[in-house]
Amino acid sequence: MYKGVPASPGIAIGPALVLPKKQFQLEKRVIQDVTAEKNRFHQALAAAKSRIDDLIASAQAQGQTETAKIFEAHRLMLEDPELIAGVEKRIAEEKVNAEFALETTVNFYINLLAQANSDYLRERVADLKDVAGHVLQLLAGDGLQTPHIKADCLIVAAELTPSDTALLPLDKVQGFITEVGGATSHTAIIARSLELPAVVGVKKITSAVQNGDLLIIDGEQGAVLVNPDPGTVEAYRRKQAVLHRQKEELARLKGVAAQTKSGKTIRLLANVGEPWELPKALEYGADGIGLFRTEFLFLNRETLPTEEEQFQAYKEVLVKMEGKPVVIRTLDIGGDKNLPALNLEPEMNPFLGCRGIRLCLKDKALFTTQLRALYRASVYGQLKIMFPMISSLEEYRAAVKCAEEVRAQLIEEGHPVSSHVPIGIMVEVPSTALITDLFAKEVDFVSIGTNDLIQYTLAVDRMNEQISHLYTPFHPAVLRLIKMVIEQARKGGIEVSMCGEMAGDPRFTPLLIGLGLESFSMSPSALLAVKKQIRTLKNSTAKALAEKVLALPTAEQIKAVLGNEENKE
Amino acid sequence: MRVLTATIKTKTGLHARPAALLVNTVAQYKSEVKIAKNGQEANLKSLLDLLSLGAEQGDRITITVDGTDEDEVIAALQRCAMENELW
């Protein structure tokens, strides 16, 4: 078994198709007709450009803005006047063929860029190679080679560039395995948007696998099995069939209301951390976005996103959600998640350190830029702003003051701003949970962030493997806090929802409904399973279950009761 | 001919997004646009050239624009720099 990075979930079983490593036998030829050679180069360039335009258009049509951006950068390279001039000059002065002239010119830039001490520039080398490879293929007169794929197969490649992927007949491809890449690589992003299983970063897999070998991809585990024995294949086929059945069964719930048997409607919202998850949220029938994380705009880059860039991103999600509520959380970074552009100092206790709202209140420019972008976007839909890591009313008031100043400033500058943008907080610090009644007098809504609430309540660092067994959502103290937050928020007349892992875990659904929770936010893929659970519930059963569970003294006992299938009815 | 001198303010220098922004800004104009740093020169209409120049935060740069629409190019560059806090 080969292990890699799980990049896209699901199980695929089928014969391997190993894509050959691209190697161009570049021949240096002396040419006679300079004009004809230049024309040949320009024709190949034009063909490559028109192909990229198609790729951009189809990526945009499918809402894959990230993929479109990658190809737009490629087009900029194809149009690069210095690159073109360099090739023309070599053809004219050295009387060499277009292929050789292109290769030499591209290598010149690759050498320059590869010396740079920047991940960004090294990535551009990969882009440049991808683009040049295309033009070379076109020059070779092969057209762009589409691998001949007649039957279903699993693609095995050292590396899949976005343009490689775009050339594959995707109706036949059942999954991807690559040697390079992480969970955020191009392959991973594309595989997830196609809902095909993928494992990336599998070392030496192209030499271990031959065309036609039977492969199993387990996208959940990040595992690849080569020529497994029939028993294993059978086991995976059963697993695959179960997943398939579950998916089909759940698919039938897409247009159905999230209502309990007693007729109580529950709001199901989606957590979105990357723009590509948005279409999924809509497809699975989310009533809105309960948590839109903004960290993706800031990570994996060396500069901070500008107000304009953030504005466009927020506007896009509001427009796409067509008037449904969208809760956007302000930047939750710091501590263990560092940003190169911010140069944060390492801390002894990052989870108890300068993170979330604490960082934003310290770096006002950072906060103000985000708030300006949010308020400017507010006219494009139903925006709600949420602050993370609030631990006292003072902090909340300081954050609101910033927001109000930004809002007033924008209005003074003549920007249109929505007249009502509710402001709320994440409840993830026990001190805040304990004074929910006081917060309820000032905030418009609260959302329970269970992941951090658990770690802070139980004093368990959730990154520390030595104590991971102590991290449990079943702890009675955690459940008491949750009960308290829901009760106090309802008493205070404010909206309360939950956006942590617990909200998307069907085992907790009956208990949470029994405690009075009416709004759940979770990863889009969990929506249907939770909806299914809701539809089997009676209010009275849920209430009785909540009472029973809250009286139990240990996590173990609570887990036993909640894990028991019988209390779903 | 118009000349513009500035000191790079943006943290990453003219890599990443700022480079693409500048190239896109001037691409549509007829004028020839050059950017120079320490005697090294690059074509500002070429992303590859600009990336290779490696202009960092704090570097002093000189941009020369030559052509019929040079005034517009200078204005567009200033606007782009201001909106994105490039220099």
Fold and architecture overview:
The complex is a heterodimer of chains A (569) and B (87). Helix content of chain A is 47%, strand content 13%. Chain A has helices at 34-61, 65-78, 81-94, 98-114, 119-139, 162-167, 186-194, 205-208, 230-251, 278-283, 307-320, 357-362, 364-377, 393-413, 430-434, 436-439, 450-458, 476-491, 509-514, 527-535, 539-550, 555-562; strands at 2-3, 5-8, 11-18, 153-157, 173-178, 198-200, 214-218, 223-226, 267-272, 289-292, 325-329, 382-387, 423-427, 445-448, 495-498, 519-522. The mean pLDDT of chain A is 89. Chain B has 87 residues and is α+β, with helices and mostly antiparallel strands. Chain B has helices at 16-27, 47-53, 70-83, and strands at residues 2-7, 32-37, 40-43, 60-66. In chain B, strand 2 (32-37) and strand 3 (40-43) form a beta hairpin. The model of chain B has no long low-confidence stretch (mean pLDDT 88). At the A-B interface, helix 2, helix 3, helix 4 and helix 5 of A face helix 1 and helix 2 of B.
Summarize the structure.
Chain A has 569 residues and is an alpha/beta fold.
In quaternary terms, these chains amount to heterodimer
CATH homology superfamily of chain B? HPr-like
Q: Would you report the number of β strands of chain A?
A: 16
Q: Count interface residues per chain for the largest interface.
A: A-B, 24 and 24 residues
By DSSP (H or I, 4+ residues per run), the number of helices of chain B equals 3
Question: Count the strands of chain B?
Answer: 4
Rg of chain A: 27 Å
Share in helix of chain A: 40-55%
Number of helices of chain A: 22
CATH fold node name of chain B = Histidine-containing Protein, Chain: A
CATH superfamily of the largest domain in chain A: Phosphoenolpyruvate-binding domains
> Distance between termini of chain A?
41 Å
Strand % of chain A is 5-15%
